Amino acid sequence: MGEDSDDSAEADSHRLRDLIENSSDLIGAVAGGAIGLVGGPAGSIGGAAAGVAITKTIRRVGVEVYDRLLVARQQERVGTVLAVALDDAQARAADGEKIRDDGFFDSGEGQRSDAEELLEGVLLQAANAYQERKLRHLGAILPSLAVRPDIPPADGHWLARLADRLTWRQFVVLAIFANPPEERLSLRDIDQDVSGGMGPTGGLRQEVEELGTFGLLGVTNSNGETGPVGSTYDSASGIWGVPMVRWRLTLQGRLLVDVARLADISTTDRESVLNDLLA
Questions:
Q1: Do residues 104 and 149 touch, judged by C-beta distance below 8 A?
Q2: Tens-digit pLDDT profile for the chain (279 aa)?
Q3: What is the CA angle 183-188-212, rounded to 5?
Q4: How far is CA 15 from CA 121, 130, 184, 187, in A?
Q5: Ramachandran region of residue 55, left (φ > 0), alpha (ψ -120 to 50) or beta?
Q6: pTM metric for this prediction
Q7: Cα 110 off chain centre by
């Protein structure tokens, strides 16, 4: 894709500011009022600190996808993710994180860059994300990958697809086991042994099993090493056959937590799901 002309870039910047302002109510709901990018001149939206490459990608792809959508709520969701992405990019740059220079933002003859393709995919997922609490975390994906040259673009697409496929409650479960409350989990396991309980039933049980199937949640072995569900004798029939204190994120699970900033999920949301897990 060719370079933007000054007039085109300015027009897109105005459109980006407008669409973010049109999404302000939803931005406040899912980001807690932490996003502050709509002020100032339209041409400077995102700020120089956000990085030229990522700002151009967000501006160009964001406006294009937004204008394709006909449903107002879908447009608001896309505007919210764009605001989050710009804010995260600016914060990372302010922290001194360097934008990757391995070709992630480079387009070829008749081909878009990996960054543009990934952002379009994330925005189209966001447009249909009826669990709108996920939007803050979908918006984190591009800025995270922009500073992670250790993650190949193909892996980035896989992570984005996983984030789209998971439910909000699965996001929260991953956040819990990013820093598991081991004492509470141990007490739960003792109670289950005494009472002969089987843990929660219904949807939550299935969602946790699915995290194991996806390779995001695993179990520790006798050496304390984390492996996939099925790698130990007691996990052969599924993760619920293993004491909860031994549940751990796999390498892939930790990667998704980092890229989608799931560690930012509130204590209130974690406690609610954790209480259901411990029931």
A1: yes
A2: 445 566 677 777 888 888 888 898 999 888 765 555 444 433 344 444 456 788 889 999 999 999 999 999 999 999 999 999 999 998 888 888 999 999 999 988 889 999 999 999 999 999 999 999 999 999 999 999 999 999 999 999 999 999 999 999 999 999 999 999 999 999 988 887 656 566 788 899 999 999 999 999 999 999 999 999 999 999 998 999 999 999 999 999 999 999 999 999 999 999 999 999 998
A3: 95
A4: 20, 24, 50, 54
A5: alpha
A6: 0.90
A7: 29
C-beta of residue 248 within 8 angstroms of C-beta of residue 219: yes
Q: In terms of C-beta density within 10 A (0-12 exposed, 13-18 middle, 19 or more buried), how is residue 129 classed?
A: buried
DSSP3 helix / strand / coil % (the chain, rounded to 5): 65, 5, 30
DSSP labels, 154-200: HHHHHHHHHHHHS-HHHHHHHHHHHS--HHHHHHHHHHHHHHT----
